Amino acid sequence: MVTKDDIIQKAHDLGFEDVGFTSADPFDSQRKILAERHREYAWTKAGGLDLDAGTDPKNILPEARSIIVLMEVYFRKAFPRRMEPFFGRCYLDDDRMTKDGLAIRIKAFRSYLMENGIASKVPFNIPHRLAAGRAGMGTFGKNCLFYSNKVARKSSWVLPVAFVVDAEFEPGVPTLEVGCPDWCRNACLTACPTGALQGPRKIDPRRCISFLTYFGRGLTPLELREPMGLWIYGCDRCQNVCPRNAPWLSAALEPNEKAAEKAPYFDPVKLLHMDRKYFEERIWPHMFYMSSEDIWRWKMNVARAMGNSTDEGYVPELILAFGEDGDERVRGMIAWALGRIGGRAARKALEGFRASSAGVVMEEVERALSV
Ligand code: SF4
Ligand code: SF4
Predict the structure, then answer these.
(1) How many A from CA of 253 to the centre of ligand 2?
(2) Local confidence band at 52 (pLDDT 50, 70, 90 cut-offs)
(3) Which terminus of the chain, N or C, has fewer Cβ atoms within 10 Å?
């Protein structure tokens, strides 16, 4: 029978920086939270993610005896500076669709377990961070993120991957508490631009910029446009301001070549003008929460980010895109963005848009002209 030490060694050989073990007992605290806050999480079920089922590992593997957690540092190398202000870092080297990185290592680990007579499952819906906390691998931040107690200078730039297995291993000592220093005056709660963080370890996911960028319905409400800033897909603000992450943010990291290669395709100007083919070939394989039916949301987010950049260099691109795109949510946001950037060229364009605008778009054009 394979031992814990064998497993730890294998995980390290595969590039995982920390390994923990916990029981396959149900995550009762998570089930309780999901029940109490069912309104905030209803969208997950509607989207096919059954978080309730994930609170009992035996729903996933009836013979479950333990959970092995492998810690991946997703921000091990430096991401391109031109991407970081617009995209959450966890999406900049995400191989869940391309399966050419982490997925290969997860598969290799599962094969190793199988060769040693251990069945495993790596479900999406299990509370991976909670499993890592129960395995004693780190603590939580008031921003609801998980902070490693060993790797990446004890930061939150980690992705715990939980393997439900049918073998019994001695569990680690849980560290489920909040590990924030007393002197931090809740920097994350204060910095959250949309008020998604409503208290320590209390988030309304529906107000989180990450959620809004990929699942927000319709034209982004006026009061959220400025707070959403430059984010096009995801948001790292509550991690960027956290003093627990400062040591890793100050580290000299070698560049992430894989992310650097795709960076040109994620240039906001290219995203603003992209067609379905470009989206499906260049964008979707890396950031897949929105389908090609939702290209309008990508473009709306890009237009809003351009507006918030206040960069006049984007004005000609926004004007061009207004003529290219018939979607009123995109055109409405372009009008808003031109109003936000301001200047003579933007104003002249907005005046010209009146002739071809109606309804919501006309409202946005008039509002932009009144700024
Ligand atoms: S990711 Fe952004 S919007 Fe979401 S909780 Fe953190 S700071 Fe707030
Ligand atoms: S910003 Fe402060 S309160 Fe928030 S997670 Fe970091 S240390 Fe904790």
Answers:
(1) 23
(2) confident
(3) N
Could you tell me the two tokens for 319? 């004007």
CA of 12 to the centre of ligand 1 (A): 32
The region, left, alpha or beta by phi > 0 then psi within -120 to 50, assigned to residue 215 is: alpha
Percent of the chain as helix, strand, coil, to the nearest 5: 50, 10, 40
Residue 338 structure tokens: 């031109």
> Which of 40, 143, 220, 231 for mutating ligand 1's site (highest number of atoms within 8 Å of CB)?
143
What fold, for 267-371? Leucine-rich Repeat Variant (1.25.10)
**Domains of the chain, residue spans:** 1-255, 267-371
Give pTM, 2 decimals.
Answer: 0.94
pLDDT digits (tens, 9 = 90+) for 81-100: 999 999 999 999 999 999 99
Nearest to 242 by CA among 155, 320, 305: 155
Residues 121-156 as b/e (b if ≥16 CB within 10 A, e otherwise) read ebbebbbbbbbbbbbbbbbbbbbbbbbbbebbbbbb
Contact 215, 40 (CB under 8 A): no
Q: Is 212 in the pocket of ligand 1 (CB under 6 A)?
A: no
Q: Are the C-beta atoms of residues 229 and 305 closer than 8 Å to each other?
A: yes
237 Cβ closer than 6 Å to some ligand 1 atom: yes
